Amino acid sequence: LTKQEIKMKDITFEEAVKKLDILIQSFSRNDLTLDEAISNYEEGVKLHQYCEGLLAEASNKFQEINERLK
């Protein structure tokens, strides 16, 4: 695991979404340098992938629960 992956595992879904929102707001202000924009974009993609993974895990758990309760 990379440092970024380890750090991601320490945040909740809600915290990741909040960070994504902050990144999106920074783009809408149009005051970022090119390097900042690239860095923020990369972080945003990683946060998005992390959130997608958490949502997939939650979906699987819901399916497992539904199967058990049938």
Note the topology.
Layout: H1 3-9, H2 13-29, H3 34-68
Helix pairs in contact: 2-3
Task: Explain the overall architecture.
There is one protein chain. The chain has 70 residues and is mainly alpha-helical. 84% of the residues lie in helices and 0% in strands. It has three helices and no strands. It has helices at 3-9, 13-29, 34-68. Helix 2 runs antiparallel to helix 3. The mean pLDDT is 89.
- Overall geometry comes to elongated
Query: What distance separates the N and C termini?
Result: 38 Å
Tell me which oligomeric state these chains represent: single chain
Proportion in helices:
over 70%
Features:
70 residues, mainly alpha, 3 helices
Write a short abstract of this structure:
The protein is an all-alpha fold and 70 residues long. Helices cover 84% and strands 0% of the residues.
